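Researcher: Structure for this, please.
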Amino acid sequence: MTIESDTTETGTSAADAPVRGVRAPRGSYAKGQARRQRIVDEALIVFAKNGFHSGSLREIAKRVDLTPTGLMHHFANKEELFTEVLRQRDAAIREAAGDPAEHTLIQQATKVVAYNQESRGLTSLYATVSAEATDEEHPAHEDFARRYRESAARATPILIAAQGDGEIRADIDPALAARLIGAVMDGIQQQWLLDDTVDMNALFAEFVRGYLVPREI
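Model: Predicted structure, token format:
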């Protein structure tokens, strides 16, 4: 899908135009990277609030003191900027919670829930965009469908191994449970975004206790 940018909403300022044939001053690369990161940070706020389609490049540019054309010196179009926002969101969660692995799937999922409750902007972004992406024409549609498929595919063998070790109930279907874990996490965070008195950590712990962990005899 081709995304039309709103770069024509305003003209190019002199500050936006690159100077050709002139060597960049020392430190300009670092400044450019800092500006690029600031754009990503502000884009996260805008996309989390308005979604991808309604998130305006003009608004993002204004928040970082650029014109839309100036913003295009850092990101070619809205889709590229949006992709970078999601990439950084994934990296932040991976750094906070690690990757799911044998013997640690429940702990990793629990860390993700805890991180989400402390990171409203990222959580709101994910909830807003994942809902938008149910539209097959949305640029992130296939990406989100793939995310859920791959997450379940990674979790299923881990759950099977955990059943063999007695860490997970033997009477659950690992493939269905792999999908259900993500569904519960998404549902809990949706309720929390609507009502911040909801305790996501307590709800997920109750799900783990009542559904995943073997019952004591």
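Researcher: Any notable elements?
Model: Confidence is low (pLDDT under 50) at residues 1-24. The chain is about 65% helix and 0% strand.
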